[in-house]
Please model this.
Amino acid sequence: MLDDRKASRVLSLYDRLRKGSVLKKEHLATEFGVSPKTVQRDLDEIRAYITDYCIGESVVYDYGQKGYVIENNSSNTISAVEVFALVKILLESRAFNKVELDRVLDSVCSIISKSEQQAFRDLVLNEKYHYQPVSHGKPLLSMIWDLGQFIMKKEIIKITYKKMDGRDRERTVYPLAIVFSEFYFYLIAKIENSEYETPAFYRIDRIVVVKSIGRKFSYQRYEDGELKKRVQFMYGGQLLTLKFKYNGPSLESIMDRFPTAQIIEQFEQETVIKAEVFGKGCLMWILSQGEQIELLEPIELREELRKRSTELLNRYVF
Model:
């Protein structure tokens, strides 16, 4: 019974330190009905454990606060401002429903110092209140984690996927990567026995069921990082090499849009750029750029762009 009380007391002290509390020996001795020397021995045991198993951390006496705290001496600790920047990105993404958003915010808030937590919560409170997730409203974290494990272990999986028309379709796929683009997470996967070598794209919120089929794959055509450089538009299809002229005000924004972009020629008024992408999803983006972009190659894609532009123009002819 005595050992149980001690274990419970030590765990309680450790938990409080982890949460950023300041531990004062005299107060704790009164609370637990033990002597200050007993509390000191408990703290010494916790200090020894943290020194041995928690790199860069130590239990120290803070003379300003007149109590014991955990001090982190590692250069890799994250600050409140760094957490705030990550949270801003998270809120702007609108990717998670409100339940999962709250869980993530509580988790990241807990890793900053207790003295900064209230200021952090005040900074995000208004945005959190007005947060509007995307319309599907589905929980995603568990699915993203499970898919990540299949990718890491190179396990072939069978997915049931709900198409835009509402119908379910089953696919056996080699999961290659998870990417986030414009509100949605996507699974990039190679369809088993498909005539196409290029990967397909599945919105993770539309994946209904995932099952491992007990086999592994060795598909190595694209490294994960190289694959992600070419999937900006989340459309499947063949790997295409675009060549286009750009005459807009921000060449930097174009280079950021296409991680594979190379400047071929540069003139006073325009720049010729080459970049690789999967599929024809880039057409929608090119149309959105208006006269700032002129697609030169591939010729077939240029012709399709001309056709779409003509159809769009005809809608506004009186």
The first strand starts at residue 57 and ends at 62. The chain has four domains: 2-72, 80-129, 141-228, 239-315. The longest helix spans residues 36-53. The chain has a mean pLDDT of 86.
